[in-house]
Each structure stands twice: as C-alpha cells, then as structure tokens.
Design brief:
about 210 residues; Four Helix Bundle (Hemerythrin (Met), subunit A); mainly alpha
Length: about 210
C-alpha cells in the first residue's frame, strides 16, 4: 500500500517504527500538504458566503491551486520513500572488483542526488504557497483567519524540514559544483523564510 493511502494512525505508527520509511522527507511533504489543505479550506468556506461575492472568482482559483499542491505533496511522499529504496539497492551492489566498485560508487552518487532533489522539490513548492496563504488571510472569510495562519506556519516548517533533508544528502555527494548550486538555491529561500512567515502572521490581529 502507498504511504499516502495509509490512515493517519497507520502513517504515524509506521513513522515511529523501525521501518526506514516514512521519514523526515515524507513528514515535510505531509506538513506541506496540510498547509495546502488549510488554504483550500479557507477558500472553500469563503466561496458562496454572503459578503464575499467580489472575491469569489479569486477564491475559486485559489481553491484549485491549493488542491493541486495538496495532490503533488502527497505524491512526493511516495517519491521520498522511493529514494531510500534506490539508495539501499545501490548500497548493496557488489564491490569486489574495481569495475564493481566504480558501478557501485556511480549508483550511490545518483541515489544521493535523487535523495537531495526530492526534498528540494518539496521545499521549493512549499515556499510558493506563501502567496496563496497571504491571499486567503487578507481576502478570505475572517472567521478562518487562524486557519490561514496555521497554513503559514506549516509552510515554513515544511520548507525548513525539506531543506534539512537536502543538506544531509549533499554531504554524500562528491560533485562540488552540484552541491554548491543546491546550497545556493536553499540559502536564498532560507534567508527570507522567517521574515516571510512573521510578515504574514503579523496580519493576524487577535
């Protein structure tokens, strides 16, 4: 069974077990999916409500976008779990002859890159959702403003968690220019991440 199709209880229990997956990358993607779901919920509970006719077309668009992010993040849980399987397969390759060692090293490097690129996708996609969260906080049903705020916090958490998973896998990659490129991508976003979260949370006046 796919991890995304487990019940919440099953997913949590498997995460806490000795099974290698789901792990931190999958949790990052699940966290991002819940952020998307909260944005979708605020949009859904604004559409059709009295006094929100002017923003209804925008909310319908946000609802569709949030749903597409939600589906993508659930799929990325599976991609993240598959990365570990690919890494374990590479690790178990024979290393008796020089040729076998070279094949194994190449396979491991590919597995490390894949294991870095999946959480990178998670983090980059999650970061995009701040704009949607801002819109539902500013224009959505004010009764759900805290749901928008929690979406913001989940987005930030997902980005940070995903990027930590990128960094741990970069340690095993020998291609210095590749590592530098990914680190620079991450650093640009991380330098603005906390401020972006706080900027949106400051919109909540309770």
């Amino acid at each position: 069974m796919k991890k995304k199709d487990l019940t919440i209880a099953e997913f949590v229990i498997q995460t806490g077990s000795s099974a290698p997956t789901p792990g931190g990358g999958s949790i990052a993607s699940l966290t991002a999916a819940t952020g998307a779901a909260l944005i979708e919920m605020v949009a859904n509970l604004t559409i059709g409500k009295e006094g929100f006719a002017a923003v209804e077309p925008e909310m319908k668009e946000i609802q569709l976008l949030a749903k597409s992010y939600e589906i993508r993040f659930l799929d990325l849980i599976e991609e993240d779990c598959a990365c570990f399987g690919a890494f374990m397969e590479a690790l178990q390759l024979p290393k008796t002859t020089e040729e076998e060692k070279q094949i194994r090293t190449k396979s491991l490097q590919q597995a490390y890159k894949q294991a870095a690129e999946v959480p990178l996708k998670i983090g980059l996609l999650a970061n995009e959702m701040f704009d949607l969260a801002e819109l539902v906080i500013k224009k959505g049903n004010p009764n759900l403003i805290t749901d928008g705020a929690i979406a913001v916090m989940n987005i930030r958490c997902a980005v940070k968690a995903a990027f930590l998973n990128v960094k741990i896998n970069l340690v095993g990659i020998k291609d210095e220019s590749y590592v530098k490129k990914l680190r620079e991508k991450i650093e640009v976003i991380e330098s603005k991440l906390d401020n972006r979260e706080q900027e949106l949370l400051n919109l909540i006046k309770l």
